[in-house]
Amino acid sequence: MTTRSEALRELRRTLQEAGFETAALDARVLLLTALGIPATDLITRPDVPLSPEEAGTLSGLARRRLAHEPVARIVGTREFWGLPFRLSPETLVPRPDTETVVETALALLPDRQAPLRLVDFGTGSGIILVALLHELPNARGLGIDLSFGALVTARANAAENGVGGRCHFALSRWADAVSGPFDLIVSNPPYIASGVIPTLDAEVRDHDPRLALDGGPDGLDPYRVLLGEAGRLLASGGLLVVEIGYDQADDLVSLARTCGLEILRIAHDLSGHPRCVAM
Ligand code: GLN
After folding, report:
1. What is the C-alpha separation between 162 and 240, in angstroms, rounded?
2. What does the pLDDT look like over 118-166, one tens digit per residue?
3. How far does the signal peptide extend, from start to end residue (predicted)?
4. Structural domain boundaries enclosing 58
5. Which atom of ligand 1 has the smallest separation from the CA of 243?
6. How far, in Å, from the CA of 153 to the mean position of ligand 1?
7. Are residues 56 and 164 in the same domain?
8. Pocket, ligand 1, Cβ cutoff 6 A
9. Are residues 262 and 133 located together in one domain of the fold?
């Protein structure tokens, strides 16, 4: 019989040998997930043997990790803005960079107590919308996605984070089924150029949904739509805040000019890349 600490060591070694830089952390999280125990149990009771079922579950999770499935996807949840979010195959794994969008919107809103009307295009698991509603107690929001599965996940995340009563979700290609006015439009649209997708890390390329990544031939198609529709959708004095790829700031500046939108801020992520544009 293999004990918990032996299983942990063995999995860590397997992942290390396969070249995973986060082998130690990954092994711990996968073992805790397979056993369904809190981290403290691993420390206080390391010598408990794994049952055959637990060993089977763990080797299943290990196989998925060895195929470069991100740990967050295997566990099925990920934290964003300090809140727990569940994932589904139809949603991106939340990136910490996307917190830049939430921060920027909050920084530019004149009054957080106002009864703001928000919309999040391509809401995915709902992270941006839910984080904003969490910070804006009198706001109401609409989450839009082209994926029904994503909307189901977003709705569950809104409910579990206590903002379900202040938001709705709707299936639409961008703003096709949406009319304003909105005080705040946010979006982390797909912005990878189609031709670049085959070169992405396996964790992204093989496990994030293509619909959430592919921004068309130059990666800018969704921005053409969103910035083009902003005039119709924004209330006067309203704000549009979008996440961008690390090298897209100049393109966004010229697109904003074409659409008659004023750039209010270009915010950088923790790696120092321009990551979000507010207009
Ligand atoms: N930031 C994501 C990545 O590079 C892309 C997400 C998106 O296209 N919105 O993996």
Report:
1. 25
2. 999 999 999 999 999 999 999 999 999 999 999 999 999 999 999 999 9
3. none
4. 4-67
5. 9
6. 19
7. no
8. 92, 95, 188-192, 204, 213
9. yes
